Amino acid sequence: MRYLPILIAVLFFTSCSKGQIKEEVGLTNKLVYNKKNSNYTVHLSNSYQAEIFINGFPIHPVLPWVGATVLDLGIEKVGTQKLKIILDLNAVTLENFAPKPEDQILSINLKKGFDDDNAITFRLLYSDLKDGDFKKGYYVKEIEFEAKPAYHFFKEEAYVDLRKQPDLLDSLYARYQSILYAVNDKNAKAFVKKIEVAEYQSAQLRNMEKEWVFKERERFFKNKLNLPPIDSCKLVFTDNGKMATLGLKYDISTGKKNAMINFPALSGIWEKGSVPKFIDYYHYFFFAKQKDKNELQLLRWRTFTYDMDM
Fold first, then answer.
1. Distance between CA 182 and CA 193 in Å, rounded?
2. In terms of Cα–Cα distance, which of 37, 38, 59, 40 is closest to 50?
3. 18 burial type by CB count under 10 A (0-12 exposed, 13-18 middle, 19+ buried)
4. How do the domains of the chain map onto residue ranges?
5. Is pLDDT at 267 greater than 50 in this prediction?
6. Nearest Cα residue to 54 out of 286, 293, 308, 234
7. pLDDT at position 3, please?
8. What pLDDT, on the 0 to 100 scale, is given for residue 256?
9. Beta bridge partners of 267
10. Is the CATH number 1.20.81 carried by domain 28-33+158-305?
11. Which candidate, 191, 222, 210, places its Cα nearest to that of 285?
């Protein structure tokens, strides 16, 4: 019994030294939630695997999908934006997929708030696909539109072009690993310190309340993360080359390499405790490097889940 106080002290110190995920503040006190601020959203549906970008920033998970996505994370500047859609015509993950010519295989409706008059809409029927598209194995569509986000943190001129950086793959992989280790070790203090800038900027761009941020962070922290070997990964850049992340070289559903589609390199499973019990997550971390600093900075993070009730 004389060792019991020592054991309690050790457990207390360990808990405090690593922190509790709900108690770590990070930069959330800087968040400003505005009920009147309208978010950019896209309502979409795709029958083929697809990847959708705003200015090279992935805004959509790769698998077939029906739903809405908040887009502010991909809109970091004022003015002309580029929406890019890539359909992978080689990969069909829907059972008994046999579309008719008149079937709609892709639909996109992009707008700010409830501004239906200025919405960007795009529809693709199966009959719109050409033989050449199927021979190539993919279909690409680019659409330009104008946007004026309420917040924009990224000052492009202050950052270097990462496409010219030596050993970038090794550097990004090491940063991914450091986040993975903090999560797997359940070190809340280290984890929040690593992601706090990206968490704050991403949350502000999405006009999130602090409670929503904590809930999203907690879900991520509960993940059992998986990062494939470095030779399975490739560099993925935004259009301006100023931000970079890791993607997989291969299709996660078939194992085949696909030069057009960038599957997130980091995935995780969260045990929800209800139906569905286990939920798949896919994570993007986008890093940048200021011209007057030596280290890469994590400025954006993006988490996708295929649990439809979240």
1. 10
2. 59
3. middle
4. 28-33+158-305, 40-147
5. yes
6. 286
7. 47
8. 75
9. 226, 282
10. no
11. 191
